[in-house]
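Two proteins, back to back. First:
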Amino acid sequence: MGDLIPQAAELWQLAGVTKPIILASSSPRRAAILRAVGCPFKVVPPSVQESEYGSWDGGELLRRRAVQKAESVKAEFSAYSVLAADTIVKLDDRVFGKPQDHQEAASILRSLSGRVHEVWTAMCFIPATSGIGNTVVSRTAVTLRPLSSSEINAYVMTGEPLDKAGAYGIQGIGGLWIQSIEGCYFNVVGLPLSQLWDLIKSV
C-alpha cells in the first residue's frame, strides 16, 4: 500500500472509501497519483493480456479493457473495491498504445510531432458491495511541438517512452515538448482525478 496522507482519510471517507481500494494496474504513475491525493490503496496487477487496439471505435474497446482488468482482480478480492484503467493515444483514426521497442517509439513520436492528438482513458470502479462496475471515459487534447530527429532519438534512448501509451510521459522528460493541453492533465498521466472522485462517489 502506498504511503498515505493521514489528514486525507476523512476526505476519502466522504466518498465512501473506508478501506484500501485495489488498484488493478501495474502502472507506477497511477499509483503515484493515488498516493499523492492520500487515497488508501493496494496494487494488484490484472491478469489480462493486452492485444493491439486496432482502428478507433469511439472508445468501446477501451472501456471493455478497463472492465476486464477490474473484473479479473475483483474475482480474487471480492471483499474490496477495485479500480482499473486503460489509456490510449489517438491521432486522427490511428490508435497508439505502448510501443514494443525503440523503433516503434520513434515512429509514434514522428507521427505526433507538431500535431494535436487526443489521450483517452477509461476507468472502471467496482465497489466492495457489488460485482457490477461503473465506467467513465475521459478525453484530453494535447499539442506536441515539432520534434527533430535528433530530439526523438535522444528521447527514445532515455527509455522513458517504452512503457507509455503514445511513447511519451507528460510528467517526465516528455513534458519538455508539450505546448498545451485541453482537458484533464491527470488523464494524460493515466488517471483523471476529478472523474475518479465522481466515479467513486457515484457508487
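And the second protein:
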Amino acid sequence: MSPTRFILLLFGSIVCLIILTAFVLSYANLVETAIEAGISPTLAPMWPVCLDAFLLAGSLFILRANLLGESPRPGWWVLLTFTGVSTAFNVYHSPENFVAQAAHAVPPIALCVSLELLMMILKSDLTRETKVVEPRIEVVEEPEEVEKVRLYFEQNPGASVNKARQDLKMSWKRVNEIKQSQFHQTQK
C-alpha cells in the first residue's frame, strides 16, 4: 500500500469516526428535545434522523453537483440550514450556561464539517480515478457543435454543463468535452 493511500484511509477512518460520534451525540440531544416537544417516545428517535439526514443529503448533493459541473448552491443551502437547525435544537436542550451550550453546539457542527471533509475525499478519489481510468480524448472538431456550445456559454456564463446539454439537445459528455477544450484554448 502506498503512503498516500495509507494516509487517505487513515484520514477517511478518522472522519468517519467523527461523523459517527457527532451523530450519536446530536441524536441523543434531539431525541430528548423531540420528546419535550410532544412527539411520542416511540416516534421521537425518528426526528433526529430526519433532521440530521439532511446534512448527509446536502453533502451528497454538493459532491454530485461538483462532479457534474453544476451549481452546488442548493446543497450548501440544505447543509448549512439544517446544520443551523440541528445546532439550535441541540443548544435549546442544553443547560443555560455558555460551556454547556457550546458543548451541545459542537456535534452538529462537527457532523457538518466532517461530512464535507468526507465528500472532499470522495470527490478527490472519484476525479483521480476518472483521470487514471479515462485517457484524455481529443475533441473531434465539429465546427457547428463547437460554435453552438461556445455561443451558449458565452450567452449563459453561469450555466451548468447539464443545463447546456438539455438546451442544446446534446450529450453531457460532448458538451463537457467541447467546453473543456474551449476553456483550455482560452487559457493558452
